[in-house]
Specification:
CATH topology: Proton glutamate symport protein
Largest sheet: none
Strand content: under 5%
Helix content: over 70%
Low-confidence stretches: none
Number of domains: 1
Shape: globular
CATH superfamily: Sodium:dicarboxylate symporter
Order of helices and strands: HHHHHHHHHHHHHHHHHH
Number of helices: 18
Mean pLDDT: 88
Structural class: mainly alpha
Bound molecules: aspartic acid
Distance between the termini: 26 Å
């Protein structure tokens, strides 16, 4: 992974993505090959998720010296996640109210509609605790695995010397193994990304944009502001480091997020890259990133808010200030509850539509371009998680330097 080749991996990935667009546009007949390569890559990524997050969270918690420093890390993470999601939602709200892409659009009410999602905060907490950790692992349920790993990491730390050492060594060995396999899978990313983008462009085509173009551009512009301005600004303010250099270091997971539309599937790459390319410690990356891939979705939050207000505009329904406030708060909660998988945001949107009494068929209006918007919002989700990890790592290191006397490294 670290060997310097003439074409660094990020250049190969950009080339793969570009070729995917070209092949999809001009050679759609062979998209099956792209689909095959893309699916293979996606399966390799998914194969890594559970063992990697399990071992990396445990190692992250074990290396967090005390309950109080664990609490501090948790508090920083949640504060970052909630505030950036809120900033994202307000950006979406601003853009959709300013540009008003839904006003006067002659949209046909599509017959298709997403099934209404049932959702409650109570449900999130109940689903977080696994009844059976093995079935949660076997079914790829990330949140319960995180919960169990946090507990396990914490209690490994209070065991006697021998079992603590045995379990820590074992987890460390599993973690290192998973990182090595992830490093190998990254080498295949250019081909996998080529396949995924080839298939998407060939099977969806550009015609779907039609009169949804203005809506698409509005949401994409909001996402771009959050991605290229807000998050980099936060990174600069808190760390004084060059945010665009960091963006370049994270290019492999960002393009993977874009082409897979899944923060969860991208997670192994995000962890590997942020540790090896951006120098974030395992202690922070192992804790902040798995949690982020599950609950921190800035792109999804922004999109939920903008899309719901767009639907209201398209139906000619005026949303009062207080109704818009309900949209903002519900979008925040829904983005926390949405899974890191393709189109999760679209299904969850019905929760917000319900909350402000908008017709659920509204989802049918925007479904055509959702596949594309999903790519942009997933990349934003992953960039926000990564920026959070970088900021928190910086602040933790600064604190360590203050607490511990200099070691003359
Ligand atoms: N696909 C997004 C993700 O995995 C979730 C969404 O549909 O907005 O992060």
């Amino acid at each position: 992974m670290n060997k310097k080749s003439k074409f660094p991996i990020y250049v190969q990935i950009v080339i793969g993505a570009g070729l995917g667009v070209l092949f999809g546009a001009f050679l759609p007949g062979y998209a099956g090959v792209g689909g095959f390569l893309g699916t293979l890559f996606l399966k390799l990524l998914k194969m890594l998720i559970i063992p990697l997050i399990f071992s990396s969270i445990i190692m992250g918690v074990v290396s967090t010296a005390s309950a109080s420093s664990f609490g501090r890390l948790g508090l920083k993470t949640l504060t970052y996640y909630l505030s950036t999601s809120l900033l994202a939602i307000l950006t979406g709200q601003l853009f959709v109210n300013m540009l008003r892409p839904g006003v006067g659009t002659n949209l046909h009410k599509a017959a298709v509609t997403a099934p209404a999602a049932t959702f409650s905060l109570k449900g999130i907490f109940l689903n977080m605790v696994p009844e059976n950790i093995f079935s949660a692992m076997a079914n790829g349920k990330v949140l319960p695995v995180i919960f169990f790993a946090l507990l396990a990491g914490f209690f490994i730390g209070v065991l006697g010397e021998k079992p603590r050492r045995t379990l820590t060594d074992l987890m460390d060995a599993i973690y290192q193994l998973m990182m090595k396999i992830t490093g190998f899978v990254i080498l295949l990313a250019p081909i996998g990304i080529f396949g995924l983008i080839y298939k998407t462009i060939a099977s969806t085509g550009m015609a779907v944009f039609g009169n949804l173009m203005f809506y698409f551009v509005t949401v994409a512009a909001g996402l771009a502001v959050h991605f290229f301005i807000t998050l980099p600004l936060l990174l600069y303010l808190f760390t004084r480091q060059n945010p665009y250099r960091f963006m370049k270091q994270m290019i492999a997971p960002l393009i993977t997020a874009f082409s897979t539309s899944s923060s969860s599937a991208t997670l192994p790459l995000t962890i590997e890259t942020i540790e090896n390319e951006a120098g974030v410690s395992n202690r922070v990356a192992g804790f902040v990133l798995p949690l982020g891939a599950t609950i921190n979705m800035d792109g999804t939050a922004l999109y939920e808010c903008a899309a719901v207000i767009f639907i209201a505009q398209a139906y000619g329904i005026h949303l009062s200030m207080s109704q818009q406030a309900v949209v903002v708060v519900t979008a925040l909660v829904v983005s926390i509850g949405a899974a890191g998988i393709p189109m999760a945001g679209l299904v969850m949107m019905t929760v917000i539509l319900n909350a402000v009494h908008l017709p659920l068929e509204g989802v049918g209006l925007i479904i055509a371009v959702d596949r594309f918007l999903d790519m942009f919002r997933t990349a934003t989700n992953v960039f926000s998680d990564s920026t959070g990890a970088k900021i928190i790592d910086y602040s933790e290191q600064k604190r360590m330097r203050k607490v511990l006397p200099p070691q003359g490294r």
